[in-house]
Every structure is written in structure tokens, then in C-alpha cells.
Amino acid sequence: GAVVSQHPSRVICKSGTSVKIECRSLDFQATTMFWYRQFPKQSLMLMATSNEGSKATYEQGVEKDKFLINHASLTLSTLTVTSAHPEDSSFYICSGSLGRGKTEAFFGQGTRLTVV
Amino acid sequence: EDKVVQSPLSLVVHEGDTVTLNCSYEVTNFRSLLWYKQEKKAPTFLFMLTSSGIEKKSGRLSSILDKKELFSILNITATQTGDSAVYLCAVEALAAGNKLTFGGGTRVLVKP
Predict the structure, then answer these.
(1) Most C-beta atoms within 10 A of its C-beta, which of A96, B10, B45, B69?
(2) In three state form, how does the secondary structure of B51-78 look?
């Protein structure tokens, strides 16, 4: 299957700082990437859909000014958590799709963010 | 709003047992249903189902979809401790642009 690389795998930051998470598709071009958040023992909650070259589409309740998504190329999407707070501590996962007609999503390894 | 419900929430079995996981869904213009296995980190793909009644198999795992009753099951036979994980079910709707709606997952613990 296709490979999606997500970095960093773990990050600890202070309240008020910003953290950038990168998601790269290594062997395919991901026209669409998805960003999920997962709280302990809960399922994946879609935060936003990132399309290359255009603005991300955010799910209801997700603050777009707080979770900045950039998808500048077909192989890279980034999520920046701005002015992080302890309640932003969570597991963030990206996934890349091969595009229409190809439903299977390929997930990155995930990033565990801890805000102290 | 699309909805995916998995049951049971969790179960504990012993090696060699068979487990059956359930996933029911409500989605407008269903396109596909996917099963994932999640251990410590990111989910790994198991199956994608689009047609009713066609069983998909991979080793000891199999899955089938019933589009009339709007559910799918995932079976694991002769379970091993390595099968311990959270199993996630997700559905995609037509025109959703590959966006998946996930169920809450079933946590499976296989004891030696």
C-alpha cells in the first residue's frame, strides 16, 4: 500500500506556543488529505479535509484559526496548532487518499501532542 | 448526518476463540465500508466492502456487508494475542470526496 509519513511522532510543548505537524505522501500524490483527532479510547474524529492548492474544509466545531492547515503540494500537508492549550493535548492523525474512485485511506503514524 | 455504530464496545476472549464484530450504519448514498485495525498508533487497512453478500477474506479475518440491513461484520477465527487491538469501521458516502465517518471502535483483548 501507499505510504504516508507523519512527523513528529510525539511532541511536548508549552501552553501558548504553536506546533506544526507534517504529513507527507511518500509514493503517491495525495490530492486530498484528512486530519483527524483522537482522544484516549475514542474513535477518530475528522477535523478537516485538506485539498492541494485550496483552502481546507473544516468540520463543524473545529476552529480554523486555531488549527491551521496548509496543503501546498501534492505530497505535503501540514497542521499547525496555534496558541496551544492543555485541552489540545491529543493524538492527531493524517491520512492521504489516492483520489476519487479510490476510497482506501492511508494513515500516517500519528502525532501525540502534549501541551503542558 | 452520517452515523456509524459499532458493537460491542469491547470484549475479552482467549486464544483460539472466534470473535464477531458488528458495524451498523446510516449514510446517505452509501459508497463503501472499510475496516481498520488500530494498535498503538495509526489504523491499518483491513477490508473495503462495496457489495452485499460478498465475503472478503484475509487469513483468519473475514468480513461481509449487508446493504439491505445496513450492517457489516468482521470475523476473526482462531484468535491470537496479536489480534488484540481496536477495530474501527468507517463508511464513505458518494460525493463525500473520500471523507470517512468512523464508528467508535471495538476494543478486542485476546488473552493467552
Answers:
(1) A96
(2) CCCCCEEECCEEEEEECCCCEEEEEECC
Least confident of A22-26, A79-83, A94-98: A94-98
User: pLDDT digit string (tens) for A50-78?
Assistant: 888 888 999 999 999 999 999 888 889 99
Number of C-alpha atoms within 13 angstroms, CB side, residue A113? 30
CA of A85 to nearest chain B CA: how many angstroms apart? 23
Q: How far apart are CA B4 and CA A55, in angstroms?
A: 28
Which residue, B41, B44, B46, B43, is CA-closest to B21? B46
- Angle (CA) A42 A71 A94, round 5°: 20
Picking from B41, B45, B102, the nearest residue to A109 by CB comes out as B41
Is A103 within 8 Å of B48 when comparing Cβ atoms? yes
Average pLDDT by consecutive 10-residue portion of chain B (112 residues)? 93 97 93 92 90 92 95 98 96 78 95 96
What are the residues facing B86 on neighbouring strands? B38, B107
Q: Which of B76, B61, B60, B81 is nearest to B15 (CA)?
A: B81
